Amino acid sequence: MTYRIDSDVFWPYGQLLDITADAVVAPSVKPPWRKPPVAFNDSLVWDLWSGKTKTAAWFVSHCETLSKREVLANRLQEFFEVDIYGNCGTLSCTRGDPHCAEMLDTDYFFYLAFENSLCDDYVTEKLFDALERTVIPVVFGGADYSRILPPHSYVDANRFMSVEGLAQYMKLVVADPDLYVSYFWWRSHYRFTYSSPFCDLCARLHDPSFGHKTQFYHDIQSWWFNSCRLQSRIRL
């Protein structure tokens, strides 16, 4: 029972449901994502876009990490201001304060959902918290995010060769309201929900067919510990 999608019992932080089918589609190995529309409009996002004035926010408490996410955040500040809240920055916002979440809607274009480790399938509440706000998550981690989020709903730092390339693309999105709004197309088809892993475990234990499933781990230590790496794709 782990965050790995190939676990016997999968334990994600959150899930995405297809609204029409009322069924969980992700995270999974190959989610049946709908294709983003050629054109998309949402008046609420448009209105919020016009009032946003700040490029990116980052809420963080651990300042030195294996992923070197702090290096990426610092490099981005060479191109635009990143407001850092918590132990690693100069700004503060009390956890659970509704104003902290609301200001992401009204003030910021992007939220940095940077993970502390680059491990397969590893994503934390940072990402799923962003999905509940009108802000585009910029992700940095070891997961294949296409197994977790709909296409064109996030910006993956590891899809860029350089920090400058990432920063320039973020600037492009900020300056183009049509492009910015298009990142929220998924809300018309999917909704976010928190997972209930222990309920899932209970259901599995009461499912007669689950007892007949056998899964072998020839080297479980390697399966678990070798799923992480120290080098990111984007050059820091």
From TrEMBL:
Pathway: Protein modification; protein glycosylation. GO terms for molecular function: fucosyltransferase activity. Residues 49-223 form the Fucosyltransferase C-terminal domain. Pfam families: Glyco_transf_10. The keyword rRNA processing does not apply. Keywords: Glycosyltransferase, Golgi apparatus, Membrane, Transferase, Transmembrane. It is found in: Golgi apparatus membrane; Golgi apparatus, Golgi stack membrane. Gene3D superfamilies: Glycosyl transferase family 10, C-terminal domain (3.40.50.11660). It is a single-pass type II membrane protein. One of its GO terms (cellular component) is Golgi membrane. Its EC number is 2.4.1.-. Belongs to the glycosyltransferase 10 family. This is Fucosyltransferase. It comes from Drosophila melanogaster (Fruit fly).
